[in-house]
Amino acid sequence: MPSDIEIIKQRKKDGIDIPLQKDVQAKTTSTYLEYVRLVHNALPELDYDDIDTSTTFLGKKFSAPIIIDSMTGGTDEATVINGRLGELAEKYGFGMGLGSQRAGLKSEELAATYSIARKNAPNAFLIANIGGAQLAKGLTIDEARKIVKMIKANALVVHLNPLQELVQPEGEPRYKGVLGKISDLAKTIDVPVIVKEVGAGISREVAIKLEMAGVAAINVAGAGGTSWAGIEKMRAEAMKDDLKRHLGEMFWDWGIPTAASLIETRRAVKLPLIASGGLRNGLEVAKCVALGASMAAMAYPFLRAASQSRESLFAFADTILAELRSTMFLVGARNINALASSRYILTGALAQEVSSRT
Hints:
Substrate binds at residues 11-12, 100-102, 164. The protein is an alpha/beta fold. It is 49% helix and 13% strand. β5, α3 and β6 form a beta-alpha-beta unit.
């Protein structure tokens, strides 16, 4: 029988390999960001070189409103990827989240697959990561502190993944008491607590509960990008678990599209918001800022580039920044505050959905 550590390493490896080797993107839905149209400004009254993409989030200055979203750790491949992502975060002034770190509590070997990020990014804003299901199961405040200490984190994210836990062959779909545990964590741990989904979105009802629980920020992580139900469906298929395979197929596109989640969450709470879930370029980052996000986060595009080479990763970052700056130039936004107040028009399915939710 394989050991617990070997099982964890294989699951974490699957979480890298399947998105890179299989098509596990949304099938029948999208982020709805294609229904957000920024208004062109033919008289921007600024020079491209004058554009300032820097911003401040949770007391830290960033070169741009960009976070490398939580992805991986707990396997040998993750050491290379997190090392490269850490280098990028340090050089470019981006934020960076780590994958779920429960594995790092199991051994020093697994902890090193996460701490490499801090080794390569001594000054970057790093976000530690634990699961809501693990809090419900009994993960303690002291263990959460160890997870923060593992990467000398600037913040701690609690990820909510009921859909993934439901479909995952070895999942733990137990969420009773999670909100209370999040509230306790926010009151006692000495870094800001962020709560994020992992691709199914945050509703206004959940956002209000999280704000009342005292969290510092919310990452909406909506539908339209990588489907974790799809990833777990493929894992279930390989393990010949027909029921989980069926559930993964049925709920592949379940969730609130990213733009819809961002808009309704922005209207519901005053907390800083991170937009993620299927973002693929700098134009979409700009759209999210215009819709009310303080930061935008991406996982799959950074994972894909980091898995190829350090050069591919840095070239991708340059492209994202050029796309963001170009969008700002075309709407006449000299800085992120101006971008945040840019005019936009909602069209199609998003306009209909937003109007139906008001």
